[in-house]
Design brief:
With 115 residues, this protein is mainly alpha-helical. The chain has a domain of 56 residues. It has three helices and no strands. Helix 1 crosses helix 3 and helix 2 runs antiparallel to helix 3. The longest helix is centred in the middle third of the chain and has 30 residues.
């Protein structure tokens, strides 16, 4: 009997990889340490905000502007990271049928009877 060889296409592998990553991220968000990670992130942003506000009278205008740019960058990064996490996890809540390989449902009788 000849050996059956089976290989997934690059697209199919990518699709399975996306599902695997989404599941791993979902497990991370369900981990007991996830709220702690979020709290630490908020704490870092809060300290950066405090530093920026306290810095206003102690440095040059350019240094204050750079401090504000750094704070804005950190806020943007944190926001984008959370959006990415929820977008990735959202993949698992969708119909996991790949639209490019999904076959449409056919109407009709497949018992061999014809009308």
């Amino acid at each position: 009997m000849p050996e059956l060889k089976f290989e997934l296409s690059e697209h199919e592998l990518e699709f399975l990889h996306q599902i695997h990553n989404a599941q791993a991220i979902k497990e991370l968000t369900n981990h007991p340490g996830w709220p702690l990670l979020q709290k630490l992130s908020r704490g870092i942003i809060g300290r950066m905000e405090d530093q920026h506000l306290e810095f206003s009278g102690k440095g040059t205008r350019d240094a204050y502007w750079l401090s504000g740019a750094r704070l804005a960058g950190a806020r943007t990064y944190a926001k984008l990271l959370m959006e990415s996490v929820f977008k990735e996890v959202g993949v698992l809540d969708q119909d996991l049928t790949d639209p490019r390989t999904h076959q449409p449902e056919l109407d009709g009788d497949f018992n061999g009877d014809s009308d």
